[in-house]
């Protein structure tokens, strides 16, 4: 698969051949769904908690005698059916993370890249560098490239001026190539890869 390389100014800067084993697969929705679910579950805080019956500081004295009142048999005011009592089977602090094999994660990433390639939603740029960190100037350049909702993947490190200029733009995410992931690829309309990112991805899946 051959794509043109452009600059941030919208000028042509050559072309690149994308590896078919990374960008030419037939996307599988089940793999993508499994990986997205794994990512979201892993980052879920799990800090929700309630007070159970044993956590309520109320008297445990029997409310009234066992027999003869015609009412239900109660033993303590901390029971869930009473106002101010503990909650039955409420959430507790826990981790929502679950395991997903490394090979499945790697395959899902390739299918996510292939899905963007299939939709013609991949743009390859030569580099992401700016002489000064000006958000307004970067928005104008993105307008020339037609980028309003995009994930931008740079090389091993993102140039400081570009990162500072892009962080104030809504619906634009910037990540180094090590941080590329299925969820961020799918949640944005366009995927912008630098030439260094393409080379790093091909080396990673070699």
UniProtKB/TrEMBL annotation:
<feature type="region of interest" description="Disordered">
    <location>
        <begin position="65"/>
        <end position="85"/>
    </location>
</feature>
<comment type="similarity">
    <text>Belongs to the universal ribosomal protein uL4 family.</text>
</comment>
<keyword id="KW-0699">rRNA-binding</keyword>
<comment type="subunit">
    <text>Part of the 50S ribosomal subunit.</text>
</comment>
<dbReference type="InterPro" id="IPR002136">
    <property type="entry name" value="Ribosomal_uL4"/>
</dbReference>
<dbReference type="GO" id="GO:0005840">
    <property type="term" value="C:ribosome"/>
</dbReference>
<comment type="function">
    <text>Forms part of the polypeptide exit tunnel.</text>
</comment>
<keyword id="KW-0687">Ribonucleoprotein</keyword>
<dbReference type="InterPro" id="IPR023574">
    <property type="entry name" value="Ribosomal_uL4_dom_sf"/>
</dbReference>
<dbReference type="InterPro" id="IPR013005">
    <property type="entry name" value="Ribosomal_uL4-like"/>
</dbReference>
<keyword id="KW-0694">RNA-binding</keyword>
<protein>
    <recommendedName>
        <fullName>Large ribosomal subunit protein uL4</fullName>
    </recommendedName>
</protein>
<keyword id="KW-0689">Ribosomal protein</keyword>
<comment type="function">
    <text>One of the primary rRNA binding proteins, this protein initially binds near the 5'-end of the 23S rRNA. It is important during the early stages of 50S assembly. It makes multiple contacts with different domains of the 23S rRNA in the assembled 50S subunit and ribosome.</text>
</comment>
<dbReference type="Pfam" id="PF00573">
    <property type="entry name" value="Ribosomal_L4"/>
</dbReference>
């Amino acid at each position: 698969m051959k794509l043109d390389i452009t600059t941030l100014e919208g000028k042509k800067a050559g072309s690149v051949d994308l590896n078919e084993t990374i960008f030419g697969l037939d996307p599988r929705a089940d793999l993508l769904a499994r990986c997205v679910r794994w990512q979201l579950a892993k980052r879920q805080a799990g800090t929700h908690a309630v007070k159970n019956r044993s956590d309520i500081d109320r008297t445990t004295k029997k409310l009234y005698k066992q027999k003869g009142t015609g009412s239900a048999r109660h033993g303590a005011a901390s029971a869930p059916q009473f106002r101010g009592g503990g909650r039955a089977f409420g959430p507790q602090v826990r981790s929502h993370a679950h395991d997903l094999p490394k090979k499945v994660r790697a395959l899902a990433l390739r299918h996510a890249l292939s899905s963007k390639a299939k939709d013609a939603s991949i743009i390859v740029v030569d580099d992401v560098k700016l002489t000064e960190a000006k958000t307004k100037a970067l928005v104008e350049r993105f307008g020339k490239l037609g980028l309003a909702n995009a994930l931008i993947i740079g090389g091993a490190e993102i140039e400081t001026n570009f990162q500072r200029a892009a962080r104030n733009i809504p619906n634009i995410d910037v990540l180094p190539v090590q941080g590329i992931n299925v969820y961020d690829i799918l949640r944005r309309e366009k995927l912008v890869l630098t030439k260094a990112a393409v080379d790093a991805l091909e080396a990673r899946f070699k």
